[in-house]
């Protein structure tokens, strides 16, 4: 969830720089605490931010942006129901009196929240309201943005004609829309239309060299995806010429490597190598290791693994005193250059040994969890009891805060499942119980670890097949965590139904499985109608489960 928070943070950076007030201070403080794994420290900052939003007039400049920031802060802790409630309450306060731009933005936030919760019909409803308001208020940019989002939703809902109708109405709205349309078409596999839009963007951006170059680069990428390597190379050649003419030498040099790869894939290997050498010569700041690795990757991309292997082996031979971390990096890259599986495995073993050397140089007190987990993995097959004790030691070593504590807990849950696979299901259950107790203690401040662990725990018991009562109890625990995180009526409940259906099938309860499959169909219909792929997949599940006459 953190990537979405960081994305919002990036979008709001200009606002934060211009208004260094208490809101921004608290927002950045809670983000820093969350990233550092200090969940309890993040929570008070969220409370302050929420109070600010509830007390701020909806016509305050930047109000919708700050609602988005706050909503994302809660989502980052997997508190999606609260994040959505904040946006919905803000929209309700806006009523019909707040500025249209604010209301449109808030509708978009709510729509995105419902989309994240897999309720496409509600998301589409809010987008339709936002589009209607944008049209009424004469906001061309908002009309375009809402139309593009709505068209995407219609595609997911299986309403291709409605999506096409929306797109056809916005083709002539304002200028500078080709880039967004190209992205829309490309995301839905309409590569011809995407290429047409990108070419229009190139033509319309003649007075803006940087924008035109970006469009040419995207067009080349589109051609490469279609394996039209000659067209991609020709487009990149145009881009390089335009960049050089505009005095953008660094940009031009950055495109040459792509140009070389596409030239080689188009069959012009010698010309490609000359271009690549020119590119490397232009990169004056690169260090020798980066040049060697880059050259090897280029050779792999152009289907010359043996040559890539030689480049890296020669570098190792001529640099005998490399730091262990650099040697490990080269050995890891060599794994992908070997054409023989045995040789590749030898490189992987050598890389693993070198990584151990690197790890051994880390002070002992800073890596107890990793040490316990590694030893547990090593002893798992020969002595599950010892592996269990080591996993417990790792669990007890989990710090009260720290950015890696969630990852450490998840690794311990993987060990729990592995214990069951190696004939120790009782130890697996004990370990899961202790992990669940730990992440449950964090849930007042963040639900994310609890969701992950309860999901894995449910899957663990579903996979056992011989313990249906325990499996259903674990599924119910996951369902409760989902409701706490996302609320009722979200599409995530389909995961619960699918796991429950699997359990009933395993124990031969066809009637109960059929009822659950019917519930799955009904839920998918309520979320996305009868034309969506999700609904079609639910129908297939029902067909597979229902008894045949």
Could you explain how this protein is built, in words?
- There is one protein chain.
- The protein is mostly helical and 549 residues long.
- It folds into four domains: 1-117, Serine Threonine Protein Phosphatase 5, Tetratricopeptide repeat, CATH 1.25.40; 175-279, Tetratricopeptide repeat domain (Serine Threonine Protein Phosphatase 5, Tetratricopeptide repeat, Alpha Horseshoe), CATH 1.25.40.10; 286-361; 369-545, Tetratricopeptide repeat domain (Serine Threonine Protein Phosphatase 5, Tetratricopeptide repeat), CATH 1.25.40.
- It has helices spanning 2-11, 13-18, 22-35, 39-55, 63-76, 80-94, 100-116, 120-137, 140-156, 160-170, 178-187, 191-204, 209-225, 229-245, 249-265, 269-282, 288-301, 305-318, 324-335, 341-360, 368-379, 384-396, 405-421, 425-442, 448-464, 468-486, 493-506, 510-528, 533-545.
- Helix 8 (120-137) packs antiparallel against helix 9 and helix 17 (288-301) runs antiparallel to helix 18.
- The longest helix is centred in the middle third of the chain and has 20 residues, at 341-360.
- The two termini are 47 Å apart.
- Mean pLDDT is 84; it is low at 1-20.
